[in-house]
Here is the input.
Amino acid sequence: MEKSEWIESVVSRFRQCCEQLQEQLGHAAEGSLLDVADEEIFEKFHPLLREVQQQAIQKQIDRKQKHSDYRRCDQCKKKMRHKGTKSFEFITRAVNIKLAGTYYHCGCSNSKSVSAFVSSGRRFSHQACELTSRYAATQSYQQASKYLRKDFGIWVSHEMLRSRIRDVAGQIKDIRDGNADEYLWEKLSGQRLYGYVDGVLINIRKEGWKECKLLRYQCDPTGQIRHRGLLGPIGRFGRMVRREAIHLGAKQSSEIVFLMDGAQGLHCHIKKNLPDARQIVDYWHACQHIAECADVLYPKDEVQLARWRSRYCHILREHGAGRLVNLMRKSKAGLSEEHKVAAVGKLLGFLQTRVDRMEYQRLLEKGYRIDSGPIESSCKNVVQARLKACGMRWSRKGACAMLEVRCAYMSDIWQDVIQKCA
Here is the structure.
């Protein structure tokens, strides 16, 4: 069929479908079109659109391969050997397009395949790359494969999606680690930059439960949010915190403030990599330590337990950790039972090493946040929502890949980053 003939044939079939649609619109009662005719119309138009895409691209491939200069090697300029016909499946946002062409090979190890004609050898179009990555990052691979087929007619197996996530994750990591000035926060100048850090346990095959460290940078006035995660040594995580601060332009901010749960390891590595950043222990985490002590002191008296816990949480918030430490020392001196002395001593140990990061009254007066609620939300939405479903276990490579994609997906740079992935 000549070029003009197949175009005329497609136009004629489109015209027939449009006439049928016009007829249905003219006779359909209110609401019946959506209930009955919608599926019928889609079943007629969708295969036709797929055929148009496939025919147009295949005709272009055939035309280019018939050109006399195509068989000439780009490197040695000799005539390449014919190696038969090979097929190639190009995945678009709408459908899978199956293409075929002649494969040539040269003695200098250079080759030419049909895939080079389609988006420079890409298997996925830019739109399909974003779509499949997003579906795989928000639900299980099996579900993503099922709904991509149902919603868009894209046929990809769950194994292909798993491989795709690993490829995309590696590219996202390279992009985010390498582009220092491309994703700067423009409105950060003069603003206070908040950093949140916490850990989430992930079930890794052959290793058991391992901690994934999650970082969240946030600027409240602008609403900008950026995440990074790491399943690895805390030293590497500290360097990641510094690198990400540089990439978003933290030096423009008036101050960097970190809110954490009081873990000494994180405190030391944040201080090492960002020595000028202010660190604050999450107020509610400190209140949990007070509550644990109250449970030991008053195990059978709930009224007294609640009263003791409320009193000392109030003192911590209104007067700071220094005042609370003095009161705890007096309380400890009046105790005789060993387990109660140990409980108060444990609370004192927690407070004494963190006094300078728990002056909540002064912090509130200066407008600082004292809670780490945002990172708790990120732990649930970024990590747990995809990596901690019921009965889910991961390989280390698979977990790291999914974590990288999820952190980019839940950040303000997702659209820009995913468009650069091949």
